[in-house]
Amino acid sequence: MLRFAHAAPLAVLALAACTQQAAPAADAASEDTSPAPANAEEDIRRFLLQEYPDAAPMRYALAWSDLNGDGADEAIVHLITPYFCGTGGCNTLVLTPAGPMWSKVGEISVSRTPISVLDSETIGWKDLAISVSGGGGPSGVMRLAFDGQSYPSNPTVAPAEPTEETGTVLLSEEPELKTLEAAAKSGE
Known about the structure:
Blueprint: H1 2-28, H2 40-51, E1 58-65, E2 74-80, E3 90-98, E4 101-122, E5 125-134, E6 137-144, E7 161-162, E8 168-171, E9 178-180
Antiparallel strand pairs: 1-2, 1-9, 2-3, 3-4, 4-5, 4-8, 5-6, 6-7
């Protein structure tokens, strides 16, 4: 009996420790909803340097989500650098795996965070909820639907439409930012 009297407080402490450690994981589940494929982040960094060599150094936020249900995650890349940003916001890329590289299925200008994926879909791709404000336009959240080739490039005009849906947050209002330096030129 004495043995059980000491075990109960220890069990409560162990349970409390597990509960405290599990709480951050639950919060993290709302952002970056799925893990990155192997080597994918390094591939994204190479893609950015090849696609926008004059934009580096740049800062970006990155999230992963299977938007088209094919089992492979797309990359949602919110670019934060003067090259991509103005008073209306910054550019957000939606990239899908294309063999050993990535292909753009969205280059969304004047966007802000948070960025969410919605439960609704259009032509087999999940709709996105993109925040907009500044640049002289109204503030709010706009629903962007895939048109068969890409997501709309400007979330402040049709076919983008206002939405009150929140969906699953991919990039929070203040996401973790990564830095990408310019590639060294040959002979340097």
